[in-house]
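WARN no homologs supplied; continuing
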Amino acid sequence: MSAPARLFSSADRRRAHHGRRRGYVAPSVAPADAPAATGSVPAMTVLTSEARDVVTAGRLAHLVTINADGSPQVSIVWVGLDGDEIVSGHLGMRQKLRNVQRDPRVVLSLETGHRNAMGLDEYLVVRGTARITEGGAPELLQRLAHVYLSPDTRFPPVDDPPPGYVLRIAPEAIGGVGPWTV
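OK structure emitted
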């Protein structure tokens, strides 16, 4: 098995095999710039309304990308939604973005701050395929700063920030502990 394939390996195959009854969708890998099939039905989002609420609640997200050697790389990021994509803004080309350029598979996890009736802390896990668009990071970061910091925050707090990059994640499967799991 090649090193980058480790992120979605035997555990995902087991879930795909054993989880069909529960509606688990095994992750698929396609290049971020792959054209959509012509004549196909638009893909429905896998994000439930409850999962969308978690993504937009201003909770820090743990973004996992794959290093060149196949090991995981984890970053804490602010996230929001743009349509059905989860987005995060980045002013510079950092390791997480270089990893996505090479291998678009990502995993995001977010704690919700809620505890369920069984006493378990709820969390959301999103597996997906990411792509990078140039520009728009300062505007996205400003929008997210209103959620993560305060409505009157100016972010980034510099004059004339670089255009940066927006990481766009197309969710393919969700899990964790919460009402978005069955």
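The chain has one domain: 46-177.
OK
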